Amino acid sequence: MRIQVRFFSYFKDLTGCAETVGEVPEGSSLGELLAQLRGQFPKLEPMKNSTLAAVGVEYQDRHYVLREKDVVSLFPPVQGG
Question: Residues 6 or more apart from 30 whose CB is under 8 A from it?
Fold first, then answer.
């Protein structure tokens, strides 16, 4: 399956792009896609435990099963001040 992935905030700097397409087997989880992306973009590895991930407009946990045409958005942790 092809999954569109969008990067926000300084994740764009870490990856060098605003979006990419991930290729995963049918039935793959969001966590499996994220692991694949960390392999493709090693600078994301330090953010492994704090990356916020949404599918469509809803935040999802790493167990979410991806479906064809899902759009995944990745955000760094939100900070307030």
Answer: 53, 55, 60, 61, 62, 63, 64, 65, 66, 72
pTM, 2 dp? 0.92
Could you tell me what percentage of the chain is helix, strand and coil, using 3-state DSSP and rounding each to the nearest 5?
25, 30, 45
Structure tokens at 42: 């090693």
Domains and CATH numbers, the chain: 2-75 (3.10.20.30)
| Secondary structure of 1-21 in HEC code, one letter for each residue | CEEEEEECCCHHHHHCCCEEE
**pLDDT digit string, tens, across residues 27-72:** 999 999 999 999 999 999 999 999 999 999 999 999 999 999 999 9
Identify the H or E element spanning 46.
none
